[in-house]
Amino acid sequence: MRRDVSRPPSEHRPTQPATEASGNDPAGLCLTAREAAAYLHLNERKLYELANNRDIPAARVGGKWLFPRALLEEWLLEQAHGGALTDRLLITGSDDPLLAATVSALAPTLGAEGFVAYSPTGTLTGLELLARRRANVCALHWGGVEHSEQQHATLLRSFGGQRQWALVRLALREQGVILRRGLAVEGIETLAAFDYRWAMRQAGAGSRHYIESALASRGFAAADCSVVATAHTEREAAGLIARDEADCAPGTRAAAAEFGLDFLPLGWEAFDLALPRDILFRRLFQVLLRAHASAASQALAQRLGGYDLSPLGQVIGLD
After folding, report:
1. The domain containing residue 106 runs over which residues?
2. Could you tell me the pTM of the whole model?
3. 77 and 92 share one domain
C-alpha cells in the first residue's frame, strides 16, 4: 500500500486519540484498529487483512489487534516511494571474514550515496534484531549443511517472521575448531578431555551450536571443556588464540586462516542471509550480492579457504 505523501503531515494523523485507547495507553504508543485505519486512511476490513497476513506491524492482545505507532510510522516510510530508507542496509547476525571484507570494500564505492554496515551479534540475537526491525539482514548458520534448509526455515519460523522473510544462500563454509599454531590434535575428544583452554562462543551463536552438536555425537558436552573466555565473534575468538590467551575455539577455517592459525575441520555448513522480502530487490542488497561475487571476493575466499561460493544468491524456500 502506498500513501500520498504530498499532503501535510497533519492530515495523516488522527486529530484526537480515541477514548478507547487513551484509558489503557495514555502515551498513545499503540493504536486500536479503528485508530490505525483512520491514521492510514484504510477501511478496517483491509487493515485486518494486512494484520492477519503479517504485512503490517501489529500484535494480537486479548483477542484485539493493537498497532504500535512507532512501527507504523517506520512501515509508512518503507512504503513511500519504494522506501525512504533504501539508502542504507544494516546487517547483523553471524560473523564471517569474507562478508566483512565485502562490506568494507563497498564503503569507498558507495561514498555518501549509501551506507552498508555489518555488526555481528550471533545467529539468534541477529534474528531477534531482524524480527524487531532493528536490522535489515541477518547472517545465520545453524548445524550441518545436509539439514540446513530445514533447520534454517524452522529457526526463522520460531521468530514469527517467516511469512515475510526470504532466505538467500551466501556460501557454504567449513566449520570446526580454530587452534593455536603448532597444536596437533586428532579430534575434539582430546580438546574436551584434557586441559586445553577454550575461548567458547556465546549461547545463541551458530558456531556454539555446531560445536555442541559435534561434542554430543562423541559423548561430550560443552561443560567438559576448560573455558577461559567467551568470544562474541569468530574473529574475537581467533584474536584470543593469536595472543596466546586460549588454545582453541569453535569457528571456521576462514577465521583461522585470517589470523594465521591452525584448524581442525569438523564439517560443512550453509551460511545464509535472512531478510524481509521487500528488501530482497533493494538496490543496496543487490549491490552487496554482486560485490560478494566479484573477482576480488572470489580470490579472497580462495586465499582464506573453507568457502564454496557456488550457491551464492540462491533463494531458499521456506515452505
Report:
1. 85-319
2. 0.76
3. no
